[in-house]
Amino acid sequence: MINKLGDLTTEKVNKIYSDIDEKSAFEIIKMMNEEDKKVALAIEKEMPRIANAVEKIVEAFKNGGRLVYIGAGTSGRLGILDAAECPPTFGTPSEMVVGIIAGGEKALYEAVEGAEDSEAEGQKDLEGIGLSKRDIVVGIAASGRTPYVLGGLSYAKEIGVYTISLCCNEQAIVSEIADIAITPVVGPEIIAGSTRLKSASAQKMVLNMLTTASMIGIGKVYKNLMVDVQTTNEKLLDRAKRIVMMATATTEEIAEKALKESNHQPKVAIVMIQSGCRPNEATAKLEKANGFVKKALEYIRGEEEIC
After folding, report:
1. From the record, what ranges are coiled-coil (predicted)?
2. What CA–CA distance (Å, rounded) separates 100 from 70?
3. What would the pLDDT profile of 36-94 be if each residue is shown by its tens digit?
4. What pairs with residue 205 in β-bridges?
5. 22, 252, 270, 300: which could form a disulfide with 275 (CB 3.0–4.6 Å)?
6. Residue 93 — φ and ψ, nearest 5°?
7. Mean pLDDT of all residues in the chain?
């Protein structure tokens, strides 16, 4: 395992860009864009492990567990961002996907000196949320050696929690600890050591995959529509209406009526329109189908055939 910071790929100097400080704005942006193209290719190599992680996350959700992200600095902020976007997008409870960052809330806005250097703090923060065996923990660290993350993952393993690591360096310590190691190696940054660039982009893309694919896996998407979207503002109310219209090929008037009767739940409104069910009947069928719209409609059609 590589432990010295200077030996990490993410810390190396990319000699191709040693004169970047002499370039024009356009030349700098072009260089950055060329480097960013490498991110998707690095993630492609990790797809089998990402898919395996998604299967484990879906399993945890179905057993009433949580997805917990833990990280420091940029990595921690990315975890919190991904967690925060799940409730409005997929209608999940706020506690279903949790983001934890070294240094706490203050670290979201400014660097908290030394916060990432304590393994004990990583364990303490996971203890603070009542981590249990039903949960699944993703340790995010571009370097793969952040003590706070290592401490958190080690504690999770000790109490029988399934663990996933996400870092951008081969032979990283965190990869040795985790049950699944996701390691998109994007190469040296265009500004040496600035892992808020390619490394952070890779991490964000992987986190997108983990939550999006997992939410699809528990019925939060019908066709390619986010049918559990929360209608908490005018924009989302309008989006919910358009989702119902697209899912059912119906008129705006019918979609609005069904949404109103279903207490603005797109899933229920879709099942109502497609089957002619009342809101309580549609809700019951969705519960029987574990939230999958397509399965709920199949149940209803099956009952119609029997009749």
Report:
1. none
2. 5
3. 999 999 999 999 999 999 999 999 999 999 999 999 999 999 999 999 999 999 999 99
4. none
5. 300
6. -65, 150
7. 94
Residues contacting residue 254 through CB under 8 Å, at least 6 positions apart: 248, 273
Token duo for residue 276: 């002619």
> What predicted TM-score, i.e. pTM, was given to this entire model?
0.93
Alpha-carbon torsion 194, 197, 202, 208, what sign? positive
| Domains assigned to the chain | 5-217 (3.40.50.10490), 234-306 (1.10.8.1080)
Tally of CB atoms within 10 A around 297:
20
pLDDT in tens, 195-245: 999 999 999 999 999 999 999 999 999 999 999 998 889 999 999 999 999
Place of tokens 């739940």: 265
SS (H, E, C) the chain: CECCHHHCHHHCCCHHHCCHHHCCHHHHHHHHHHHHHHHHHHHHCCHHHHHHHHHHHHHHHHCCCCEEEEECHHHHHHHHHHHHHHHHHHCCCCCCEEEEECCCHHHHCCCCCCHHHCHHHHHHHHHHCCCCCCCEEEEECCCCCCHHHHHHHHHHHHCCCEEEEECCCCCEHHHHHCCEEECCCCCCCCCCCCCCCHHHHHHHHHHHHHHHHHHHHCCCCECCECCCCCCCCHHHHHHHHHHHHHHHCCCHHHHHHHHHHCCCCHHHHHHHHHHCCCHHHHHHHHHHCCCCHHHHHHHHHHHHHHC
pLDDT at site 159: 97
Residue 2 reports pLDDT greater than 80: no
Do the beta carbons of residue 232 and residue 88 sit within 8 Å? yes
CA distances 107 to 104, 123, 173, Å, are: 6, 17, 24
| CB-based contacts of 249, cutoff 8 Å, min separation 6 | none
Return the active site residues: 85, 116
Give residue for tokens 């080690």.
154
